[in-house]
Amino acid sequence: MKKYTILFLFLVSFTVFSNIRTYGKGPLFSKNVFSPYIIFMNLPGQKALIDSPRSLNITTSIYYSQDFNIYAIYNYPHEEWGIFRVADFESFILESSSFYSINKYFEIGMSIRLISYYGGALDSFTQYWHDLFSLPNGGREYFPINEVYVDFKTQNGFDIFLDKPAVGFGDIDTWFKFNFYTNKYSAFSLTQGFKIPTGQLSNITGSGYPDYLAGLLIDFYPIQYFSMYLQGAAVFPLQFMFPDAPTPYPSFNAIVSLEFSPVKFFSIITQMNIKTSHIKGYIPIYNNLGMYTELAGSPQTNLLVGIVFTIDRYRLQIYFEEDTFMNAGTDYTVSVALSYDLRLK
């Protein structure tokens, strides 16, 4: 009996651990759409492993986000509080990305996006929903509904301002990935990125200057049904190369992603995207952790929860994103992305 039990456990273990990378579909591919950060490059969430050498992956993504951010200042002479808006808008972003795997070691890619800001139509619904369940409105009731307003004043030599709807092409992100180590349970890659400044600060589609990114991507496949992705990168705005240019700070990006794949064609992914700020505002505030900082100066801790379906060469990704800890991001972002893997001989 013992002999058969050992044989059964061996066969189960062999089934689980064989072909260990089959089910991994993550991490969640995403663009940071928070208005002070969308103008800079960010770590997008790419797999370290190169699945299909000599293939062209084409991805179309859409992002819908809503943001409403206010701050209050106490007026001592008048003994009253003043409430001011920082951000109040909805945005819709269409993004096209392509990645070409030269071989099992090298991959190149690029992303370009069309960005639109508008007043939207959900302010009334949001207020009604909050009133219905006796939830706080976060100050929405003090301002006109369905307006576009962004006003981030920084200590870095530039301000981010918009008070009317705007549409424009964003920056072009280019990528290079080198997979330097892969085994049955893990993959390690170096990644570099360069941002071509095709966007404009006037409509919050770009900073007007290039950025450089360098980072490390790590995939872990401990068992067939679970995967983990750890990524870190530094982003360097290259304004220092230009005379009299603004002076944003370098930023650290990190991604921690956990994936559960109960079946080959479906995954559930929970992901944390962390990013330190490129800018610092003038308004002193307390963040959600009770830390004293400047407006837009807190690290961003975005939680993403998504699902991924794969059928043959197609991949469908849907996720919901919110900065639940530091309140240094959009109110929420919803994204849908469809990919197709074109195999080239």
Descriptive keywords:
single chain, 345 residues, mainly beta, Porin, twelve-stranded antiparallel beta barrel, two-stranded antiparallel sheet, globular
Short structural description:
By secondary structure, the chain is mainly β. The chain has helices at residues 2-17, 123-132; strands at residues 55-75, 80-101, 106-118, 149-153, 159-162, 166-169, 172-182, 186-196, 211-223, 226-237, 251-263, 266-275, 284-286, 292-294, 300-311, 314-323, 332-343.
Describe this structure in words.
The protein is mainly β. The chain has one domain (23-343): Beta Barrel (Porin), CATH 2.40.160. The protein is 8% helix and 52% strand. It contains two helices and 17 strands. The chain has helices spanning 2-17, 123-132; strands at residues 55-75, 80-101, 106-118, 149-153, 159-162, 166-169, 172-182, 186-196, 211-223, 226-237, 251-263, 266-275, 284-286, 292-294, 300-311, 314-323, 332-343. Strands 1-2-3-7-8-9-10-11-12-15-16-17 form a twelve-stranded antiparallel barrel. A two-stranded antiparallel ribbon has the order 13-14. Strand 1 (55-75) and strand 2 (80-101) form a beta hairpin. The longest helix is centred in the N-terminal third of the chain and has 16 residues, at 2-17. It starts with a helix and ends with a strand.
Topology:
Blueprint: H1 2-17, E1 55-75, E2 80-101, E3 106-118, H2 123-132, E4 149-153, E5 159-162, E6 166-169, E7 172-182, E8 186-196, E9 211-223, E10 226-237, E11 251-263, E12 266-275, E13 284-286, E14 292-294, E15 300-311, E16 314-323, E17 332-343
